[in-house]
Every structure is written in structure tokens, then in C-alpha cells.
């Protein structure tokens, strides 16, 4: 992307995200791994890989969303994920957390909590997603 306005806006968003994240790490007792995972997910989105988090990225249904597709950037329903080897299972809590991470205003990004079980899934998905999308892009 060579558009200067977009680039500036993304720089601003990235800096804002970084400052919010540093604040959370130094001033709160929120789980560090969760903070890092939220950071990764939001950063990947800012840098051009905003996942589809409102419906199945393949068929468009909002029912039975059970997976996150790394390959197709977003949520997938039970049926569509069967033929997607890169789809990672997620529970309802993890799904809500990912959706929140993508949609929340910058200042409220860290204003949520999830169970330990969901943190595990969230960590896995955000790690794979960032690695897959950005490693190739920024090598
Ligand atoms: Zn589907």
C-alpha cells in the first residue's frame, strides 16, 4: 500500500495500540499472555488483515460459528470448516473475544475478560494468525 494518508493513519493506530498495550502491562494485573494475544490480533488487523468476525467468511451464515480460518481470514461455520485444514476450533467465549478485539474502539480494547480456557484458544489463534499473515509480508 503506497497511499500516504492510509499509511499515516495506520502508523497512528499502531502507535496508539502500542501505548495502550504498554500501559496495560505496566499498570494493570491483566494476564500478560492475554494482553500480548490481544495486541497481536489487533495489530494484524491494523496492518491489513482484518478478519471477518460477523459471519462465516465462506457461506455468510451467522449460525454455528465454530472455527477461525487462518487461510481465509475469519470466522467459519461448522460446515465450511470441515473442508478447511487451517481452521482452528474456538468456543463461544473465544469467538466473542476475537470479535471484540476487532470491533472495539482503541481506548476500550482491553476492557474485557475471558476464562482461562478461552485464553488458551485465543492465544493459539492470535499467534498463528499473526505468524501466518505478517511473517510472509514483512520478511
Ligand atoms: Zn459457512
Query: Order of helices and strands, N to C?
Result: HHEEHEHH
Q: How would a crystallographer describe the biggest sheet? A: 3 strands, antiparallel
Round the Cα radius of gyration to an integer and report it: 15 Å
Q: What share of the residues lie within helices?
A: 55-70%
- Structural class call reads mainly alpha
Shape: globular
Q: What do these coordinates show?
A:
The protein has 139 residues and is mainly α. It has helices spanning 4-27, 32-46, 78-81, 92-103, 116-137; strands at residues 65-69, 74-77, 87-89. The protein has a single domain (4-137), classed as de novo design (two linked rop proteins) (Up-down Bundle). It has five helices and three strands; from the N terminus they run ααββαβαα. Strands 2-1-3 form a three-stranded antiparallel β-sheet. Strand 1 and strand 2 form a beta hairpin. Helix 1 runs antiparallel to helix 2 (32-46), helix 2 (32-46) runs parallel beside helix 5 and helix 4 (92-103) packs across helix 5 (116-137). The radius of gyration is 15 Å and the shape is globular. The model has no long low-confidence stretch (mean pLDDT 93). Bound molecules: zinc ion. Zinc ion binds at residues 56, 58-59, 61, 76-77, 79-80.
Pick out its properties.
139 residues, mainly alpha, de novo design (two linked rop proteins), three-stranded antiparallel β-sheet, 5 helices, 55% helix, binds zinc ion
Amino acid at each position: 500500500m503506497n497511499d500516504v494518508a492510509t499509511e499515516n493513519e495506520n502508523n497512528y493506530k499502531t502507535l496508539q495500540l502500542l501505548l495502550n498495550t504498554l500501559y496495560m502491562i505496566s499498570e494493570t494485573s491483566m494476564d500478560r499472555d492475554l494482553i500480548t494475544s490481544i495486541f497481536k490480533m489487533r495489530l494484524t488487523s491494523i496492518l491489513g488483515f482484518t478478519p471477518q468476525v460477523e459471519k462465516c467468511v465462506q457461506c455468510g451464515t451467522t449460525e454455528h460459528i465454530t472455527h477461525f480460518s487462518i487461510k481465509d481470514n475469519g470466522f467459519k461455520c461448522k460446515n465450511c470448516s470441515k473442508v478447511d485444514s487451517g481452521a482452528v476450533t474456538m468456543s463461544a467465549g473465544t469467538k466473542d473475544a476475537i470479535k471484540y478485539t476487532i470491533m472495539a474502539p482503541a481506548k476500550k480494547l482491553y476492557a474485557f475478560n475471558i476464562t482461562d480456557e478461552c485464553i488458551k484458544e485465543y492465544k493459539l489463534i492470535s499467534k498463528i494468525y499473526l505468524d501466518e499473515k505478517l511473517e510472509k509480508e514483512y520478511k
